[in-house]
Amino acid sequence: MLTTKLLVSALFCLAANIDLSSAKFRVIREWNYVNFTWPDAEVYRQAFEGQQYVPENNIIAGLKYFEDFYYITLPRMKPGVPATLVRVPAGLSNNTAPLLSPYPSWEMNQIGDCKSLQNVQNIEIDPATGRIWIIDGGRTETLSDSPVAKCRPKLLVYDIKKENFVLTYVFPEDVASFNGSFLYDIVLDNADQGYAYITDNSGRDPGIIVFSAKDNKSWKIRHSQSMRADPRAAYFRVNDVSISASLNIASLALSPRIKNSNDKIIVNDEREVFYSPLSSLHLYSINSSVLKNEQFAATLGEFQGNVKDYGTKASQSVGMVMDNQGVLYYSLLALNGIARWDSGTPFQTGQKMIAKDERYLEWVNSFAFDDQGNLTILVNRLNRFIYQKLSINEPNFRLIASNVGGKSYLYDESYNYESSQTSEASSTTTTEKEVPVLKPGTDQDPYLSPQPAEPQAEPTPESSMGQTNGSTTPKPSSAAAEKAATALISLLIAGMLLVV
């Protein structure tokens, strides 16, 4: 019987790989494809029929958390992406595939309007100020033969609490090229009124862009040896999809500014910025004092100073984040895994793979911390999105979380993050319920594991309006025992995603 074989297989895999001493990652959100909170049915119908909304062309890519919401980016790589920045509620929910709400509004996601958001790959949120920093690459349909280059790359800062933009900065051509740049990731350095460090994944001119909030000015640091692709790492496989491309610097992570040592708080404004080209096995870092020195970007030349090479990882990586204790988390794409490294230990001996799963961790793309010690990862199967057509009849996007005890590298122990003390001047309504914590190593998981997806038809305005994944009424099982076994498999695999 097929169900019995699946159950035996699932039990074998779990028995072979689970390490009960480690925290468990659990699926908390899952989409076959994403849909949106449309103003009304007629707007949805027109967008669907006019192909302003093409379900299989929408992919979620970046993820951050702030006060009961996940903020998610949808880069406009293909046509038919109606919104490029959205948010969904975090915390307890019976709906594991919620509709995406364009953020901060539908109007600010209007494609073709250069004052609005055009192509957002990643964001960062400062938990102390409640401000979201948005990098907008400008060009859209970047995977097509003729990308649309109407708007310049820009950086925007939006105050979530006051609901208004506080900064719009358009990058000059020598920093972020109108036709050649690809703004990929961003971290924030809150020293000296604030800096943003942004990776430019450009094929022609990769580097780290620096924006100074104090001077309202930007420049780019270039270092070909560490920021360009390594041809030896250009080919790898993710499940049955082969990747063959020379992809330059992508994600980056910043070491914490404030840490405890012997019960003393130590403030360090000279921090390490960690990064790696996607097509590379090496992890590098450059000191923030270098990035903040505009002279190193003079005459568009190469930085000639010290860049640290920590050695090799087990695979190529695209997503990474560092917590407030200096622990780095990063994806291992070819291994369908997640690794961690305590930066206080040697890199070559201190790396540890903490999760591995071919089904549930197919292309881990982004990471986010909440304020309760939970690490949430975003999985988006980008390998299939680029090289194949996504099937909307099976799960493609997941948020998977575990309590690892860390918080964002931006978390400042001198700042009180209690919503009750920071929301008096806020126009955002906050809930009074306590944010649940994912308990490591137990089955007392407050989040619901999604049930196995039923086969789904191509979405239509009638079937898809008001739904996120186009699901139809579940078909009754042929036997109650098979339904129970299927549910058990779901709990075993989704609720206890293997860790090693």
From TrEMBL:
Regions that span the bilayer: none
Location in or out of the cell: Secreted
Principal subcellular localization: secreted
Key words, A-Z: Secreted, Signal
Low complexity bias locations: 420-430, 450-464
Signal peptide as annotated in the record: 1-23
Matches recorded under InterPro entries: 6-blade_b-propeller_TolB-like (IPR011042), MRJP/yellow-related (IPR017996)
Keyword hit for Oxidoreductase: no
Region feature Disordered, mapped onto this chain: 420-479
GO annotations of cellular component type: extracellular region
Cited PANTHER family: PROTEIN YELLOW-LIKE PROTEIN, PROTEIN YELLOW-RELATED
Family the UniProt entry places it in: Belongs to the major royal jelly protein family.
Record-given protein name: Bee-milk protein
